[in-house]
Every structure is written in C-alpha cells, then in structure tokens.
Amino acid sequence: MTATTAVAMSTSTARALQRLLGRDTSLQLSLTRRFYSPTSSLPKKAWDPHASEYKYWNREESKHGEASYVLAMSPESVQKEARILCLAAEDDDANSPLTNPSSKLPFGSRLLKIGTQPTDFPDSLASERPNVLFVSPSCPHARLQLPLIMHKFPTIEWIHVRSAGIDFLESDELPKITNKGIIMTNAKGQFSSSLAEYVMLACSYFAKNIPRLLQQKKAKVWNDFDIEELRGKTMGIVGYGDIGRATAKLASNYGMKVVALRRNPSKSELDPVCDEVFGTGKQNLQKLMSISDYVVCSAPSTVETRGMVNADAFKASKPNQVFINLGRGPVIDEDALVASLKSGALKGAALDVFATEPLPTDHELWDMDNVLISPHNMDKTATFMHEATEFFVNENLPRFILGDTLLNPVDATLGY
Length: 416
What we know:
InterPro entries: D-isomer_DH_NAD-bd, NAD(P)-bd_dom_sf. The protein has 416 residues and is of the alpha/beta class. The chain is 32% helix and 13% strand.
C-alpha cells in the first residue's frame, strides 16, 4: 500500500465514521484523534499534516521538534475547563511554556495564579474553582506548601509535578491527598535519554580504561594495554522504570545482556530489550548483583528503597563489577559502597547522585581514583526542565480537557 493510498483510506474512513456518528462531536473528535495517534498501524508517511489539525509526537522518534499532542480543539471537544494554579517560583524560566503571557495554552485552559505559598493565592480565587495544580521543584518547601494549597482549594482534582521524582513533596499528608481521588502525575520520561547516554559513557569509561589514557597523555607516555568490550557483558538495572528501560535499549544495542529488578516483573515480561526481570527483595537483588558486570541503580528514593543497596548486596557483587548510580543517593549505603571500592570488590563506580548533596569536600569519594563523580547534572541539558513543562502543556493538559486518560500517573504511597 502506498502512502497516498493509506491517506485516502484514512480520510474516507474518518468521514464515514463522522457520518455514522451524526452530531456527537466529542466522540467524533476522539475517534479522529486516535486515528492519527502514535500507535496507529498506518505507515508514518501516510500522515498528512495539512489534512488534519491534530499533530502527535512520540518523543523518542521525533527529530523535528513538533509539538506533541492536540494543538487545535474546538469548543465542542472540551469536556472540562482546566483552571490552573502554579506552585512555583515566578522567576523560574523553565515554567515559561505555562507561565509566560505570550505562551499559547490549549483551548479550554487558563492559568489563574503563580505563587510559592498559600498567601500568594487570594481567597477570591476559590470562586474560580481551580481544578489543576502544577508543582515545580523551584517552589521552596513544597512539601509543606502543597497540603496547605490543597486545603485552601478543595476543588483541585489533578496535581502535576514537573519532575520525575516526587521525593521533594514527600510528607505524611501526601498519600492522604491522593487517597481522596485526586490524580497525581509527573514528568517521567523527559530526562531518560540523557541519563541513559551517561550510563553508556560510564561503562566505556571503565571498559576502555579512560583514567589510564588520561594519565598517559598527561605524562606523554606511549604504552598500549588491553581493554574490554561491552559486547557480551551483563548489565543489571535496579529500578526498571522509564530511565532503566531507556538504558536497556542502548545497552542492548551494544550487544549487552540486560537483567532488571522491578516491583512488578510482569510489566516487562515481553520487553524485547530485557533478557530477564526479577521481582524486588533482598535475594533477587543479590542475585542480580552476582551476575552483572555493570549495575545501574535508577530506583527512586522511597521508604522502601532507602538503603536498599547495602553491604550484603555489595558482598554479592560479581568480581570486577562497576556500579553506577543515577537514581537517588539515599538508595545506596555509601559507607558500604566505599568499603567495596577500597577492598577491590568493585572495579569502580560512577556516581551522579549522593546521600548528601553537594558532596562534602572532605568525603573520601573525591580522592578515589576508581570513582567517576558528576554533580547530579547528567540529565541537565539546556532545555530539559523547559521540555518537562512542555510535556504538561502539550501532552497532559489537552488530555485533561478532553476527558482522556492522563499520562504518568504516580502512586504517592509508593513514591513513583
């Protein structure tokens, strides 16, 4: 089937559906919208951007920077209006796709107010019945402010967090809020590709012995030496969420075997880039550590995961193993990590996150030659937070307005 034929078929089918549906415009829009969705079986070349007002973008596949969801919506398609409060610092430019007066928000949405504490939001706003709360990590003491905002504006039904982790909001009140039927979503997936690239850099750093290359260059010494391939090695991923899977894709392209640990292994049973998935638990973690040449920890910081990778886990490590942490520092027992590095049980470590940040200047990790340290910035591209806000504006906000299922739901009790 040619692209032209596919377009003709898609257009005729959509028109036939519209004739059958009569005047039910909301259903017409839903069917037409899904017809052009990223999961459509039609070839990509069959989609004609001039033939429809709807544009879609799969973040991993787009190379042209198109907006990602519905750009134009008619009044008939709006199921509910989005009245938004923004809990963020006003000078945070990363929020500009939402907060800049010149930004074009989806039809059926409006920003009511920006602030960092309840007093910034006047009582009179209650009459506007705000129903969406956008929360930015730039809000000071956000974990304290969020429950107060929710109490002041009980009409809020959806909280979106502009980060992947929600640990900066963690409090005893947070699960109580979401248990009332309020939906919470996050920006998961907006930071994964850069972090996955960092993992492969870290693996190559040790496999090709980059520290020795740098030393020899500085000393002007020409001595060849053996290096290692990544092909055929096993990568173990602790926390197989969006970051973990993005990493697995790259690792599999290098010819590595991938094993993973996640809370619900059944979700990855048919994953083509992961060879084996274990459930959580001490024994499974030790099993993963014992068979992996490279271990990547991308687990979030929660009550269950803090200190999870401890001395027992490191004792089970496969000889010559490299440990990479890019999730959250508190998930690792740093004392146990340091001991394993000193003893030679671990070949090396690449660390982007730490229990205390910034890492204290007197911490012994700074002086260890077999440790690669980065200041929690391996996802910090020039546009990463700006794009996280665009995800809210262009992806989830239209879904909310159209009464569609929101992306990236978060379980506040689990912490992810």
